[in-house]
TrEMBL record:
Keyword Transmembrane helix found: yes
Transmembrane segments: 12-28, 34-54, 61-81, 101-120
Name listed for the protein in its UniProt record: DUF2809 domain-containing protein
Residues in the signal sequence: none
Amino acid sequence: MTLKLNVSKSRILYFCLFILTIFLGIMSRKFSLIPLFIGDLLYAVMIYFLLRILLIKKKALLLLLLSILICYGIEFLQLYQAEWIIELRKTLFGRYVLGQQFLWTDILAYTAGALIVFMIDKIILVKTNQKFV
């Protein structure tokens, strides 16, 4: 019973962080004072939190690797230039999820974001979740 309760509260915590990250990512694109790489960094954070929600019992290291692979995969997919995917990228969904163009700096931002959120998860959030029990 306690483990199930802890898992539910953990999912709620990660879901709130996921929503907050989406909001911050969108806001990072609205203000020109914020460097563009911050949005890419937050994209990796968002993917990590999404995986954390879906795979709550998996080790954080596995989620770090999966989030990096997903972000890299999406970035390398931008090299694919078929007409149908170009049209999809012109939509709001396509622009936010698939991106516009391949950039090596995005790879660096994804890596940094995933590593930062992994460290935060390991150091702070895991200890916070233990207090819920």
